[in-house]
Amino acid sequence: MHNFLVSLLSISSNISPEHLPPSPIINKMGDIQQYKEKLWFPLESNPALLNEYISNLGFSTDSHQFVDVFSTESWALDMIAQPVVAVVALFPMTEKVSKRRKELHAESVSGVSLAVGGDTNVDGVWYVKQRIRNACGTIAVLHALANIPQSTQEVIKCPSWLQTYLLSSPTSSSPIDKADVLENDATIELFHGAATNHTINSTSRGNKEDEIDMHFITFTHVDGRLYELDGRLEQGPIDHGSTTQANLLKDACGVLQQLMEADLDEVRFTILALAPRSKAGG
């Protein structure tokens, strides 16, 4: 298990058909009840906003920060400081993009078959299910922060909300258990809500009930593999093959480029890299 959470623990001793609907719950009497999904405002893909957000959660942006990746071409990737520790993307869930994404997932080389509901773990990968509507931005951020390399030092503030949550929801905890903790945490709901209403936002957050056809996902490198993390996917983490920390950005953009090519009329793709700040213009 080669992510920063190992170090932390030792120190501290609109949804496409591929997405999973809310799971039923069982009350104290043993009766099955339908889980009622919470509803948040959607988060904006804005590096200035997300940097303030993760700082408030407890991630030190003195070390790393989110930066825009302006293209999947080499000239744009060469502008980003290395090594990138996570890639977060926002993409439109059009019919063409969703179809191509399913094809890529079917071609995944992982050979890992998660139980229905994704309530199991892939070794070394911190993964949480998303059971809060419009929370995909926060889920993507958590997937990015919880899977940073163990070699990355002193990036999680102690004490902080992030430290407390990761200690209560370690990598070994099931994706559903991590989701349960998140859903019952009023603090993260306040942090998320404040971020969606921040003056840094370039657009209005609209109404909670608005139909949203955009979705956040995260790409991370764990044990030499490129994982796509999306808390709404039934099958859990998607293994897109081998990679290295140095090639994480390039390989993640290779996957995203295939989604872009599936619908050339769409321009609503954004890519953010969590990169070293010292060389990233900060």
Topology:
Elements (H helix, E strand, L loop, with lengths): L3 H9 L12 E2 L5 E2 L4 E2 L7 H11 L6 E6 L4 H4 L8 E7 L2 H12 L25 E2 L2 H11 L14 H8 L6 H9 L2 H11 L17 E9 L2 E5 L8 E5 L5 H15 L7 E7 L6
Q: Summary?
A:
The protein is α+β, with helices and mostly antiparallel strands and 282 residues long. It is built from 9 helices and 10 strands.
What do you see in this structure?
The protein is of the alpha+beta class. The chain contains nine helices and ten strands. The chain has helices at 4-12, 47-57, 74-77, 95-106, 136-146, 161-168, 175-183, 186-196, 248-262; strands at residues 25-26, 32-33, 38-39, 64-69, 86-92, 132-133, 214-222, 225-229, 238-242, 270-276. Strands 4-10-5-7-8-9 form a six-stranded antiparallel sheet, with helices on both faces. Strands 1-2 form a two-stranded antiparallel sheet. Strand 8 (225-229) and strand 9 form a beta hairpin. Helix 2 (47-57) packs antiparallel against helix 8 (186-196) and helix 4 crosses helix 9 (248-262). The radius of gyration is 18 Å and the shape is globular. It starts with a helix and ends in a 6-residue tail after the last strand.
